[in-house]
Specification:
By secondary structure, the protein is of the alpha+beta class. Helix content is 68%, strand content 13%. Helix 1 runs antiparallel to helix 2.
């Protein structure tokens, strides 16, 4: 593979991580806030509809995904400080030696 191929491969990984972590988590949080407003109904919505249980469930699910993403990021930073890395070999993230 040429040097350009390696550069493009690295750029793609950085772009994907930036979209997921840089814009993805805040977008999921914003969707969670919107779902929470839908779940509250009444004055929280433009049309003043009735409360919806589905909105609350979706909001809490989105908030849980955001919290898990933040915790995974903190775990990655701390593990790197101790000379370790995170492995997703068995679906569940585990801290392993580099």
């Amino acid at each position: 593979m040429s040097n350009l191929g390696f550069a493009l491969e690295g750029a793609w990984k950085v772009l994907a991580a930036g979209l997921i972590l840089g814009a993805g988590l805040p977008a999921l949080f914003a969707l969670g806030i919107r779902a929470l407003a839908f779940g509250a109904g009444g004055d929280a919505e433009v049309n003043g509809g009735r409360p919806h249980r589905t909105g609350k469930v979706m909001a809490y699910a989105l908030f849980a995904i955001v919290i898990l993403g933040v915790l995974l990021g903190i775990t990655f930073i701390v593990a790197s400080g101790f000379g370790k890395t995170i492995s997703f070999e068995h679906i569940v993230p585990t801290i392993v030696d580099k």
